[in-house]
Specification:
Length: 114
């Protein structure tokens, strides 16, 4: 299984970005997909997750600004990020959890700066 993340970049404070993460390979039953981020000198932290049933969970710092969604036909998870702040700057990683294993994408850099 491979996860290909894309959509990162440089954006000004208050701007928006949409991250995508497409899964490919021999994918068995997906339990959940999600996004995590890691800023320099900090531990990786949860941003948002979505289960196969559509239940979502968000970090308090992004609730109301970020929206996670999936395209189950394409096995793709998205993260719509609005009202971005400098503290959102980090490498964003996607994660796929199946009934057997968990997989991580390679990460995409998001930089929020004027």
């Amino acid at each position: 299984v491979q996860l290909q993340a894309s959509g990162g970049g440089l954006v000004q404070p208050g701007g928006s970005l949409r991250l995508s993460c497409a899964a490919s390979g021999s994918i068995f039953s997906i339990n959940a997909m999600g996004w995590y981020r890691q800023a320099p000198g900090k531990q990786r932290e949860l941003v948002a997750t979505i289960t196969s049933g559509g239940s979502t969970n968000y970090a308090a710092s992004v609730k109301g600004r970020f929206i996670i969604s999936t395209d189950n036909v394409k096995d793709t998870v998205y993260l719509q990020m609005n009202s971005l702040r400098p503290e959102d700057t980090a490498v964003y990683y996607c994660k796929l959890v199946t009934t057997r294993l968990a997989y991580w994408g390679q990460g995409t850099q998001v930089t929020v700066s004027s």
